[in-house]
């Protein structure tokens, strides 16, 4: 069972695709959102959830105060579930300020290549079979979309190598939770001329 952990939609159950996705465990989601809450990175944030699956990460951010969330999922059946889950989360906001949630049924690379407004928070939880050169291309396409203080969280198997980072991104930290590893990235600090 996947559910929203906290915020106005706390305890809401989310539909999960029957196959083809690997939902983030409650333990890992708790760790991600505890860290994001500690740095005050969610309230009012513009969020991208790439390879969204059920949309659990992006919708958790919406429940906790993100201003807008885009769930990007290429599988039409999974994207339909994302829409259903998004409708339930937005409805749970009641009279509170409702987050804007949109589902983009598109390959992640094509979505990023189309450009768009700057984002503050990005979740990347690709299928394990996504190869490293493809992930590197996604990260390179993401760099121009990042706000100055953006946070990027990549979730992979501990058997995956550390992602190759393009110019414009740097590793902030790495955390392991059982078979899952999280890489926290941030925009690279511009080098100062000598």
TrEMBL record:
Keywords for this protein: Methyltransferase, Transferase
EC numbers on record: 2.1.1.171
Record GO terms (molecular function): 16S rRNA (guanine(966)-N(2))-methyltransferase activity; nucleic acid binding
Alphabetical list of CDD domains matching this protein: AdoMet_MTases
Pfam families given in the database record: Cons_hypoth95
SUPFAM superfamilies, per the entry: S-adenosyl-L-methionine-dependent methyltransferases
Protein name stated in the entry: 16S rRNA (Guanine(966)-N(2))-methyltransferase RsmD
Organism listed in the record: Orlajensenia flava
Lineage: Bacteria, Bacillati, Actinomycetota, Actinomycetes, Micrococcales
């Amino acid at each position: 069972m996947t559910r929203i952990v906290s915020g106005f939609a706390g305890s809401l159950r989310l539909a999960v695709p029957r196959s083809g996705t690997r939902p983030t465990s409650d333990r890992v989601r708790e760790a991600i959102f505890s860290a994001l809450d500690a740095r005050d990175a969610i309230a009012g944030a513009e969020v991208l959830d790439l390879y969204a699956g059920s949309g659990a990460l992006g919708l958790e951010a919406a429940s906790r105060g993100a201003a807008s969330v885009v769930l990007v999922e290429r599988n039409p059946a999974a994207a339909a579930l994302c829409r259903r889950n998004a409708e339930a989360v937005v409805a749970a906001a009641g009279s509170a300020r409702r987050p804007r949630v949109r589902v983009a049924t598109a390959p992640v690379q094509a979505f990023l290549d189309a450009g768009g407004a700057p984002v503050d928070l990005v979740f990347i939880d690709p299928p394990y079979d996504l190869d490293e050169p493809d992930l590197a291309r996604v990260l390179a396409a993401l760099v121009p979309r990042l706000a100055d203080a953006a946070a990027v969280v990549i979730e992979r198997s501990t058997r995956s190598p550390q992602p190759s980072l393009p110019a414009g991104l740097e590793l902030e930290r790495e955390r392991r939770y059982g078979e899952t590893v999280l890489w926290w990235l941030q925009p690279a600090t511009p080098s100062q001329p000598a």
